[in-house]
Write a structure and sequence with these properties.
The chain has 296 residues and is an all-alpha fold. Helices cover 62% and strands 2% of the residues. It has a two-stranded antiparallel ribbon with strand order 1-2. The longest helix has 23 residues. The radius of gyration is 21 Å and the shape is globular.
């Protein structure tokens, strides 16, 4: 072997060792990025306490760690993230979630308005974290708080096992190992679920007509989410199929949706596409959501 090759090999090893050391010593969960512009009005509408918690507190840590752990499982859905940010900002600014007389509530003022803590924590943590907030909304839609937290615990442990068993080598293997060591307590996951659950209640009220109409339609369809026997596989399939289906919808692509998981996303994210419901009778449902291309 030539001296040049030996030097290059040593340099490469040193570089990987440096990156590995950085991965060990830097807590990536404390990193904050600039939120996409579509989410900025939501951030401005949050109380000071919720804003601080979302940007620097435990909820931000949860968003960053979940985003890192599940990053490789999430399809690219930039249009969905933009549309969701606009809708979340719209709801946060509405009279339903942002009372104008908040200053009169004194010590309780920080608890008024929409609890968009998990959304803002996700928006300041990256697109993958936004997808994890969307998953939290899906779980909160159909499960009780205790059930949803238990599901989070189970899928988190299974995801860590899968990442830890990765056969990647070099720096990718080192980073995979670090990711598999991500730790989130049951109480942190409970706070994550509580924030998403609170947001659902506020958003349902703000978009009452459209949400009520949609839920009646979905209830009449009676479609199950999926038939996967294991929790991790079932959740992952429902979540990723929802992300893909909603990405296509907000882009303006017409499609036939029969997947129960995709319908659950439709029920959870407050984006309303005009629909043609096929059954014993065919019904055209115009929801007039201007966040969707082609709707006026």
């Amino acid at each position: 072997m030539s001296l040049g090759k030996v030097t290059a090999s040593a340099a490469s090893g040193s570089f990987e060792a440096t990156l590995a050391l950085a991965a060990v010593n830097i807590d990536f969960s404390l990193i904050k990025i600039e939120a996409p512009k579509e989410y900025r009005d939501l951030g401005l509408a949050l109380s000071k306490k919720r804003n601080t918690e979302a940007e620097n507190g435990e909820v931000h840590v949860t968003a960053r760690r979940l985003g890192a752990l599940f990053a490789d499982t999430i399809p690219k859905t930039p249009n969905l993230y933009r549309a969701y940010g606009l809708r979340a900002s719209e709801i946060a600014k509405s009279g339903v979630s942002h009372p104008s007389s908040a200053k009169h509530y004194g010590m309780f003022a920080d608890h008024l308005g929409a609890d968009g803590t998990s959304i803002w924590a996700a928006a300041t943590s990256g697109e993958t974290a936004i997808a994890l907030h969307l998953l939290a909304c899906m779980l909160a839609r159909i499960w009780s708080h205790a059930e949803a937290v238990s599901i989070w615990v189970e899928i988190l442990e299974e995801r860590k096992r899968i990442v830890n068993s990765s056969e990647q080598e070099g720096i990718l293997g080192i980073l995979a190992l670090q990711t598999s060591r991500v730790s989130l307590s049951r109480s942190q996951l409970a706070v994550w679920d509580t924030s998403a659950r609170s947001w659902l209640q506020t958003a349902d009220e703000a978009k009452n007509f459209q949400q009520t109409q949609l839920m009646l339609i979905l209830k009449n369809l009676g479609t199950s989410v999926n038939s996967k026997p294991f929790v991790y596989e079932s959740v992952l399939e429902a979540w990723t199929s929802s992300l893909t289906a909603m990405e296509n919808l907000v882009k303006g692509s017409s499609q036939r949706i029969e997947n129960g998981g995709a319908l659950l996303g439709l029920a959870s994210w407050h984006l309303y596409r005009d629909m043609l419901v096929l059954g014993r009778t065919t019904k055209q449902i115009a929801q007039k959501d201007t966040s969707i291309p082609g709707v006026r």
